[in-house]
Amino acid sequence: MPLQRRVPKFGFKNINRIEYKAVNLDTLQELLTDKKIKKELNFETMVELRLIHKNDRVKVLGRGKLDSPIKVSAHKFSATAKAAIEAAGGETVIL
């Protein structure tokens, strides 16, 4: 019997999976302290700063702390990131 029939198949490839590019809160705070952004971070600004590519989807994750209020636009937010942004006085906008 040929080898490809003797060896079992593994896994499953989901064709409907959506890949997100992760951006953490500590990255946002670093951009604020370096004065690369002021009060708003939108999709176009993230592309200009080379955090993401123009065809990526963005998810903001909650690693790190945020000290300044900022308005962030992204495709998804984790619960901890959304709570941290709103606790700092910022706003979250889902694209």
Compute the number of strand runs: 6
Largest sheet: 3 strands, parallel
Under CATH at level 1, the class stands as Alpha Beta
| Sheet/helix structural class | alpha/beta
CATH architectural arrangement: Ribosomal Protein L15, Chain: K, domain 2
Helix content: 25-40%
Q: What's the mean pLDDT score?
A: 92
> What value does the Rg take, in angstroms?
18 Å
Instruction: Give the ordered list of helices and strands.
Output: HEHEHEEEHE
How far the N terminus sits from the C terminus, by CA atoms, comes to 53 Å
As for the CATH topology, it is Ribosomal Protein L15, Chain: K, domain 2
Folded structure, characterized:
The protein is of the alpha/beta class and 95 residues long. It has a single domain (17-94), classed as Ribosomal Protein L15, Chain: K, domain 2. 29% of the residues lie in helices and 23% in strands. The protein has four helices and six strands, in the order αβαβαβββαβ. The protein has helices at residues 3-6, 25-33, 43-48, 79-87, and strands at 20-24, 40-41, 57-61, 71-74, 76-77, 91-94. The longest helix is centred in the N-terminal third of the chain and has 9 residues, at 25-33. The mean pLDDT is 92.
